[in-house]
Amino acid sequence: MRFSAFVFMILLVGCGLEPSEPSVRHFSVSDRPDPAHNSRNSIDYWGVYQGTVPCADCAGIEMTLVIHENDTYERFLKYLGKGDSEMIEQRGSFEWNEAGSAITLEERHGSTKYRVGETALLQLDTEGEVITGDLADKYVLEKR
User: Fold this and answer.
1) Cα separations (Å) of 135 from 97, 130, 142?
2) Any bridge partners for residue 114, and if so which?
3) DSSP 8-state assignment for residue 134
4) Which end of the chain, N or C, is less surrounded by CB atoms within 10 Å?
5) CATH number of 41-143
6) Which letter, b or e, does each residue of 110-119 get, where b requires 16 or more Cβ atoms within 10 Å of its Cβ?
7) What is the pLDDT of residues 71-110, one digit of tens each?
8) Cα–Cα distance between 140 and 137 in angstroms, integer?
9) Residue 71 φ/ψ region, left for φ over 0, alpha for ψ in the -120 to 50 degree band, beta for the rest
10) How far apart are CA 118 and CA 19, in angstroms?
11) DSSP symbols for 51-105
């Protein structure tokens, strides 16, 4: 009797250790991001952002970008390693993309795009895509 009880316990415990069927997760509406919430309407994006971004013919570009709530900006650039480089000041307006996640600074000779995050701006390429490669992490302006 003891032996059969022992075997029964082993079988009972052993059955509990068998792999179970993988559970299928059902997605509900709450699992998807709410399209009504984006960088434009959910975070305090305005403020001062600073960083040094890569430069093709200098040691880097020291940048301060001030974003205002009225869709205007001020940008201050200093090219490093180019002698006595003066501070360049730029002012203008910016536009949000349709998703409300990125802004485009309108400039005299083109534009610059940034993805807007909680505490930083991530510079995007001319197509609005994230910059990749060895220097990708250098295209970030931190909020001060």
Assistant:
1) 25, 12, 16
2) 103, 123
3) T
4) N
5) 2.40.128.640
6) eebbbbbeee
7) 999 999 999 998 777 999 999 999 999 999 999 999 888 8
8) 6
9) left
10) 42
11) EEE--SSSSEEEEEEEE-TTSEEEEEEEEETSSSPPPEEEEEEEEE-TTSSEEEE
